[in-house]
Amino acid sequence: MSGRPPASEPNKTSFLKRKNIEISLHRYGIEALGAMALGLFASLLVGTIIKTLGQNIGGGIDWMIEFGDLAMSMMGPAISVAVAYGLKSPPLVLFASTAVGLAAVKSGGGPASCFVAALVGAEFGKAVSKETKVDILVTPLTTIIVGVAVAKFVGPPIGDFMKWLGAVIMWATNLQPVPMGIMVSVLMGLALTAPISSAAIGVMLELSGLAAGAATVGCCCQMVGFAVASYRENKIGGLVAQGFGTSMLQVPNIILHPLILVPPTLAAAILGPLATTAFQMSNSPIGSGMGTSGLVGQIGTLTTMGASGVVLIKIALLHLILPALLAFVFSEFMRRKGWIKFGDQKLNI
C-alpha cells in the first residue's frame, strides 16, 4: 500500500481552490458573517435610523418614514448580496443573490435564513461560474435555483431555531437577570471585539428586552473600555476609532497580550447585571450588538425605551461613563502590577 490519497482528492482540492471555495470556519463564520453585518447596516440599520428620525422630528416627516421603511424592506437582498461579496463571488453570482435574499425573507425564515441561503447559493454559483460557454445563463440560474430552494425548504427551520434560541436567552434573562446579565453582556462584548459580527448575532437571535439591553452594555464596555484604557498609547485618534468605530482594532494586540482583554470584560461582567436589574435596560435586535458604534446602540435604546431624560441618564451611565471608569480603574491596577505594559494596546492607525 502506497498510502497515497485517491487521485480524485487532489482534483477536488484543486477545483475548490480554483473556484475560491474555502470550507472553513474563518470563511463562513468570520468573512461571510462579517459581510452579512454590512448588509444589515446598509439596509435595516440605516432604514431604522431614517425612520426613527422621521418619526421624532417635529410632528413627523412622512418622506423620511417612507424612505426608512423602504430601506428596511431590502434587508434580505442586502444580506444576500453582502454574503456573496464576503465569499468573493464573481459578478453574476453577486447580482443573482438579490433574488435569493428576497426569497428567504418571503419564506419567513428571517436573517439567519437569508445568511444560509445566500451562502449555499453563492458557493454553488461560484462552482459553475465560467465552466460553460453559456455562463451568463448557467451561473445566475444555479445561484438562484439552489439559493431559493434552500431559502424555501431549509430556511424556515433554521430561522425558527434561531428565534427559539433567542427566546430562551430572553426568558432566562428575565428569570435569572443577574447570572444571565453577566453571561449575555460578557459574551456579546467578546463577540464584538472578536473578528465576528455581534450585530449579526443579535439580529439572527432576534434579541430584545433585557437580554438586548445587557448585550448592548457588554459591547459598550469593550468599545469604550478599550478606548479609554488605551488612551495614553493611542490619544484622540484611538479614542474615536475604538469608542465610535470598533474595539476589533485591538485583536492583533490581544493575540500578543491577552491580559489587555481583562479590564473591559470585567466591566461588562459588573454592568451587565446592573442593566438587567436596577436600570432595566432594553434594546432592539439591531442595536443589541452594536455598542457605541455610530451610536447605533444608543439610538436603538432610545427607540425601544423612549426618549426621556431618565433614559438618557441611564444611557450615559451604563453605555459611556461607567464602562470608561471601570475599565480605566482595572487597567491602571494591572499596569501598576506590570500585567499590562505601555505599548501593549498601541494601534497602527
Detailed description of the structure:
75% of the residues lie in helices and 0% in strands. The chain is globular. 53% of the residues are buried. The protein has helices at 8-18, 25-56, 62-73, 75-86, 91-106, 111-128, 135-153, 155-175, 177-193, 198-205, 209-229, 231-243, 251-256, 262-276, 285-288, 296-305, 309-336. The chain starts with 7 loop residues before the first helix and ends in a 13-residue tail after the last helix. With 349 residues, it is an all-alpha fold.
Rounded mean pLDDT is: 90
Number of strands: 0
- Globally, the shape reads globular
Strand-pairing-aware structural class: mainly alpha
Give the low-pLDDT segments.
none
- Contiguous helical run count: 17
Distance between the termini: 55 Å
Following the backbone from N to C, one meets helices and strands in this order, namely HHHHHHHHHHHHHHHHH
Estimate the helix proportion, in percent. over 70%
The biggest sheet, with number of strands, parallel, antiparallel or mixed sense and barrel status, is: none
